[in-house]
Amino acid sequence: MATQPETVYAPDLDAGPRMNDAPRRKRVTRSPEARLRAAFDEPVDTVSAYLRRIGEVPLLDRRGEQRVAREIEEGTSLVFDALLALPYGRRELLDSSRRLLEDLNYRCQVLETDDCPADLDDESVEKDLEKFHGDLQAARARWETARDAVARGEMPEGPEGETSPERLCRARNDLFRLFKEFGFGHRILRRAVTTIGRRAADVKRARRQLQRVARPAGIEWQELACACREGRSVAGVSDSMTRRLGEAVQVVDEALAEIGSTAEELLCREDELQSGRMRADDARALMILANLRLVVSIAKRYSNRSMPLLDLIQEGNIGLMKAVEKFEYRRGHKFSTYATWWIRQSITRALADQGRTIRIPVHLVETLNRITRARVELEHALSREPTHEEIAERLEVPVETVSRTLKLARTPVSLETPVGDDEDTQLSDFIADEHTSTPEEIASRQSLRAATRELLDSLTDREARILRKRFGILERRNYTLEEVGRYLQLTRERIRQIEAKAIEKLRAPGRTSEVLDAWSGLGG
Question: Which of 191, 243, 343, 385 would bridge with 316, disulfide CB 3.0–4.6 Å?
């Protein structure tokens, strides 16, 4: 339906004054283009618009938080079960701890994030991985034993009166709990889900291509797939199309070999994976939306720092998402209490990383904050600026630590800072460049180069070439006697003799005066 022009009323400035001095209004019709242009011309307060939007989202009480967290857990549990049902998923999950210990590349892909230690070979990281590996392999052994017993139809009761299905369920719950408690378990699950989804997409794409060609040819797509796999020609299908379909079938065969299942089972499990992931993602999004106001309230406390408020809010939102991922509702804590720590950590880390022109490590930022607080307290108590020794005594740290931290925390000054009222000059104009040669040095160096070239020209070509290489004149480096000998195809002793003879020529009276004059000009 076409957009109708909008009719508004504007003051009639051409009309004469009325009895009550109120201007008469005349009708003005604005086109849709004019309305759109006016909407873009209006200034938009981004922060106010954002606050208005998040204010429309209802908050969650404690019971609501537990309900949403339970929904996240159940969705993730569906994903976990679907992965265990596929050989590829079992390998990715149950062999992950061993790969984390042995394969550094895999460890970097899983662990290398902003919130993990930078040194992946750190002793604490190694210890955590070894504990995860031991617990996972023990739970894996229990799960595989119970699974095999159920597959054989054995239902004996265990020492605690559990049947095989009950032991299988308990072992599965132990595996799921390990991946939940492991800090990067969700990343291992996500990697496996992504690979299975990509392989399932390959199978669906190839199946659609086969069905599209098989239908006009009057054959089943499974029969067409077998013919393409074997390289046989099919009536009604061109050879070029058969080759293209053969490539698609080969991709499917590789995908099924990697996953270790049939196409039907892969597609069925992929549907379960997507269903569980969507269920968990929807609940996760609801928990995040309901706590965006908490992020704003925390970010406002840091608004007088070196980052804009919107950037602080975005960094806090990242911390909120991590809190949702790691929240354990069974402990009985309120989510806002738990999330506050993650939000604050994300904001303070962003301030440390991005708030300064020259980045300062996080531990030094914390030390600087302690020093700043102590300095303010001492300044109020002493009514003067405290010394470094007094601050160090207050914090019980060495004086060198205080001095070094305050020196590192100095605000850098731009070389393009204007100087003077006219702002025609910059700070860089008043800083001497110690690496640039003076005009006198440049002239003397050119004179030395010309005099040296003239001296070498007075020698034979072979003598000049040997001296240039032996002393690095117009060369990248000095060459040894053996290197020069190989270059000129002469013996080492012959090169030494020619070099000595050439130097003796240059020492003749009067021949080196120009070089000495140029060298004295350089301060040599």
Answer: 343
**Residue-wise pLDDT tens digits, 178-213:** 888 787 788 888 889 999 999 999 999 988 888 888
Distances (CA, A) of 207 to 195, 225, 242, 263, 266: 19, 9, 14, 10, 13
Separation between Cα atoms, residue 262 and residue 203, nearest integer Å? 10
Q: Distance between CA atoms of 334 and 63, rounded to whole angstroms?
A: 9
CA distance 508 to 499: 15
- CA 194 to mean position of chain CA atoms: 18
Alpha helices in 291-357 (DSSP H): 292-299, 309-326, 335-354
Type of residue at 1 = M
Question: What is the C-alpha separation between 324 and 321, in angstroms, rounded?
Answer: 5
d(C-alpha 313, C-alpha 350), whole Å: 11
Q: Does an H or E element contain 336, and which?
A: helix 335-354
Q: What angle do CA 174, 176, 180 make, to 5 degrees?
A: 115
Which has the closest alpha carbon to 496: 475, 512, 482?
Answer: 482
* Domains within the chain, CATH numbers bracketed: 6-42 (no CATH), 87-183 (no CATH), 364-408 (1.10.10), 439-521 (1.10.10.10)
Its pTM stands at 0.61
